[in-house]
Amino acid sequence: MLRIILLSAGIGLVFFLAPFLGLEAYVAVDKWFILAFYAAVSYFNHLLMQQGFANNRQHFVQFYMGSILARLLLSIAFVGVYIMKGTPDIYIFLSNFFVLYLCYTGFEIYDLYRKLRHFS
What is the rounded CA–CA span in Å between residue 6 and residue 55? Predict the structure, then answer.
C-alpha cells in the first residue's frame, strides 16, 4: 500500500514540476483527475489482491484476472466519459492516460511478482 502512495506522489511531483520544466504542452489539463483515478483503481486492486491472498490461495488467479478486467472496464468507462465530455487536446489526454496505465500496470506486476516470490 505504501508503494502505491509513493508511486502516486512521485507521478504527482512530475505533474507539478512539468510547467516549470517547459513540459506543459505534453501534460493534459485533466492530469490530476487521471492520477486520482489510477490511485483509486490501484488501491481497489490492492484490496482485491489482499482478499485473494488471505482467503484461499487456490483462487488467487481468479482474483487477479478479475482485477485486471475491472481495471480495463473502469479505464474504458473513464476514457469514454472524457471523450463524451469533449476534452480539448484529446490526443494529449489519451497519451497521458495510457502512459499512466502502463506505469501503474508495470508497478502492479512488479509488486505482485515480489510478493509471490516468497511463496514459490
Answer: 27
Question: What angle in degrees, to the nearest 10, is found between the helix axes of 31-55 and 60-85?
Answer: 160
**Whole-angstrom distance, CA of residue 66 vs CA of residue 52:** 10
Give the domain ranges of the chain.
2-119
- Taking the C-alpha atoms of residue 39 and residue 76, their distance in angstroms, rounded to an integer, is 16
Q: Is the dihedral of CA 96, 76, 39, 105 positive or negative?
A: negative
pLDDT digits (tens, 9 = 90+) for 83-113: 999 888 899 999 999 999 999 888 888 887 8
Give the global pTM. Answer: 0.85
